[in-house]
């Protein structure tokens, strides 16, 4: 049985909740992922992104809520779904003691793809993902970037219409991450919908739409541009010296959502409830015996990290900031 679904959405989830004992990992989550989009899932560690993906793929049964993925009611029709999706987990579940080709052949057998089709498909994927020269190498001896490409090739073997990618680029260098995203856009252009979790703000900005999760709930979802345009804070940069004490003084104010040092600048998010953030900050700096000149304080445009911080109250770890 196929449950009724609006065909513009590849994923529809309503009121999704997952409890582990007394702990609620995902709470009343509503999610609509448009067909053909690359949809980004952002949020602090432990906010429930992987748990959500595992429910959407039918690997975990929700405590409450309904899920419809590609017209299939999940988890009831999870078996049918499995043949139509690709799933790349954080740990790139590869068999280290099998070669590149053997890993792909193994996945082909799981999907029941006949030998000659599988052989052609493997040759294609090895060429697309620059794995041909490593085809006889054991997966356990590949570099991080090569493992990532093999994991993506494995996830694409059954030509899925929908790909779930859970932190697919966490172990690779910036150039490999760029190449990986080029491959995602190729897949997207060929009609594949993609749900991807990431901690990298530059990757989030590449997505057609993103959702920001915190403590099991979606706090905001829209296009990256709309989220930046509609951020619920003024973003102000202050150029001055002795930034550490000034930062400590400013973050003690409830109006200041965050203050982050960027070299010689302090980037401050001030609540929209403050009508004139420049005058307000000049006054606060004065009050804290740290006078600042008017020419050293500027309103600037929000970036996605500001949006993330404004919704989660968390700084992006330095290692995950845009490259
Ligand atoms: N099987 C489980 N039993 C108990 N708690 C669990 C289980 N699976 C996940 N959790 C908890 O649920 C919360 C959400 O975990 P999840 O892996 O979904 O987070 P995440 O957003 O993917 O984090 P990260 O960005 O670190 O990968 C965490 O507190 C985790 O410890």
TrEMBL record:
Pfam families recorded: ABC_tran
GO MF, one annotated term: ATP binding
Keywords (A to Z) from UniProt: ATP-binding, Nucleotide-binding
Name of this protein: ABC transporter related
Keyword Nucleotide-binding found: yes
Residues annotated as domain ABC transporter: 11-240
Tree of life domain: Bacteria
